[in-house]
Write a structure and sequence with these properties.
3 domains; 10 helices; binds flavin-adenine dinucleotide; 7-stranded mixed beta sheet; FAD/NAD(P)-binding domain; alpha/beta; 17 strands
Length: about 375
Amino acid sequence: MKHFHYIFTGSGLSALMTVYRMVVSGKFDDKSIVLIDPDTKESNDRTWCFWENGTGEWDAIAHQQWDSAFFIDNSFTKKMMLAPYHYKMIRGADFYRYVKGMIAQQPNITFVQQKVIDFTDTPLHVLVKTETESYTCNKLFNSIYNPMLPAKSKYPLLQQHFIGWFVKTKKPVFEADAVTFMDFSVPQKGNTRFMYVLPFSETEALVEYTLFSHNLLETQEYENAIHQYLENLDSNDYEVIEKERGSIPMTCYPFWKNNSKNVVHIGSAGGWTKASTGYTFKNTTKKSEELVAFLEQGTDFTKLHQKNRFWFYDSLLLDILYKKNEKGGTIFSAMFRNAPPQLIFKFLDEETTFAQDLKVIWACPKGLFIKALVQRLF
Ligand SMILES: Cc1cc2nc3c(=O)[nH]c(=O)nc-3n(C[C@H](O)[C@H](O)[C@H](O)COP(=O)(O)OP(=O)(O)OC[C@H]3O[C@@H](n4cnc5c(N)ncnc54)[C@H](O)[C@@H]3O)c2cc1C
């Protein structure tokens, strides 16, 4: 049985970024590392967007960035200048190629294309079983998401689910310089439903019909909504170039409580997805850095603790959306109407002071949050 210092089960965003940071630190060159995943991670299986203040370490592979954004609902349209922030987009394929290209130079790191079926932390080592082989390691980094864990817990669980079409229209209908974060003018049908638009030119965009809700829809319902949206933009004549779909867990379930001395859960499987928004890329840049710093010092992953006051704020929003799913539009509209995007970004990045937190929370409908707070406390 082959033994490694470190095994990564799953080799997507969080695993690759953590390994990238280990290589950059130069402190793990003498450690044997293997990443196990049945997928070769070569296709463009997703696009990641995130906001960032100024320049950043992933700019070299950013496909596009925008400096302004729309927030829209039935009663108002707000175009916001984002400076000093930029909204950046990275294609999955570009990220995989870049990081794997760098890892390929490292003789101590290998990839194995197998499906993991089980792993166990034993007193001697961690045992990992794939469909065809078994391996042991000192430390395991798991990014295989188990949906049953949050589903069976007491924590409210919603999904951020969407289908997106990369479209090319005959007429110029998009404002190429501004993304649409949320367009709540689409019928809500008792849920939190919005359109998210990333324009690449006046005639090209990714148009994504997105819900924060309990249950996924039939494919046809997402697609009808995108078609209707394009018609409303006066664009009957369009071509669908590519499609993407996703379902991202939104939950405050404490994934880190499943860490053991030698097994750490990372990525969405480790709670690195921001519960109130589904955004994961930016959190992963931070969490992977913290994890590698911890690895240089600590040995016991149960000591990696992740709860802070922002976890509590997220849990309040999820409580509301779980019980009153139709309220999302009202909450996000009030937030974007009353607070500048820079403050909202800082808050969602968990970098605000307590006084700034209150400004953002105060921008939201107070009654809903006070009720959720009282219910949570008592
Ligand atoms: C279409 C889409 C768009 C998204 N857009 C954004 C965005 O714009 N901004 C943002 O911040 N977040 C976004 N996200 C959310 C989040 O950033 C991604 O889901 C991100 O890839 C999560 O990283 P991860 O490492 O947790 O999981 P993944 O990147 O999914 O990696 C997990 C890996 O585990 C592998 N695996 C699964 N089962 C096994 C098994 N049995 N054995 C071995 N390997 C296995 C998978 O093949 C996969 O490679 C998006 C998600 C999707 C799906």
